[in-house]
Write a structure and sequence with these properties.
With 214 residues, the protein is α/β, with parallel strands linked by helices. It has 8 helices and 9 strands. The longest helix is centred in the middle third of the chain and has 20 residues, at 96-115.
Length: 214
């Protein structure tokens, strides 16, 4: 008897996926809905408040499980209002194939969740000019998009790459609504206020510190 081989490549995730560009980036359309509140995935595992959206702006080790076992977490994510597609790390010192892998995993999970009835807003993780040919492919113009600024504007070098990537995002995709998780300094974002609606969600650590000061 021939044993059926396990689907180590998770081919079911790629069913009905369309691709864009020379690197065949999975196309991910955006939900027309907007988040009312955000919760990071690691905290979503134990919350009883499902009237919010799940995001993945945290250390990869905290949400890698959704890639390793997508089916296991599907029923949980379906309880929430929606999700922002995963933010797998895209570091500048990564070779291009690793950056591509991170972007594709986030996109294809987002597409699969949509196919299973979940509202999804694409996350856009740019980090240097060589990522532009990857991260902006397959996303709708004038749609709802999300970016995470957490850890991206603390020092001068990181802030430079973030500002350049944000400028490129606005120029290429002209988002109707831009969800920003983390800091959203006026110096960086106010120049875009006339062309897009910016929805700012402070990080959970910021919210905790604000409560402590009260």
């Amino acid at each position: 008897m021939i044993k059926k081989s396990s689907d180590v490549f998770k081919s079911y995730l790629f069913e009905n996926v369309s691709y864009s560009g020379e690197f065949q980036i999975p196309i991910l359309h955006s939900s027309k809905l907007l988040p009312n509140k955000l919760i990071q995935f690691s905290k979503a595992l134990s919350t009883k408040n499902f009237a919010q959206w799940v995001h993945f702006y945290e250390d990869d080790k905290n949400f890698l499980r959704v890639w390793n076992q997508p089916k296991k977490y599907l029923s949980l994510l379906k309880k929430f209002f929606g999700v922002i597609s995963p933010d797998f790390s895209v570091q500048r010192n990564m070779p291009l194939f690793m950056k591509l892998d991170s972007i594709v995993r986030g996109r294809v999970l987002g597409h699969w969740w949509q196919q299973n009835g979940i509202e999804v807003i694409p996350n856009v993780r740019f980090n240097g000019e060589d990522t532009y040919k990857l991260v902006f492919e397959g996303l709708d113009i004038n749609s709802n998009l999300a970016v995470g600024s957490l850890g991206c504007i603390k020092n001068r070098e990181e802030r430079k790459y973030f500002i350049e990537g944000l400028r490129e995002l606005m120029k290429r995709l002209h988002p109707k609504n831009l969800i920003v998780y983390g800091s959203a300094p006026k110096k960086i974002f106010e120049s875009y206020a006339n062309e897009t609606n910016i929805l700012h969600f402070p990080s959970w650590t910021t919210l905790i510190h604000e409560k402590e000061r009260v």
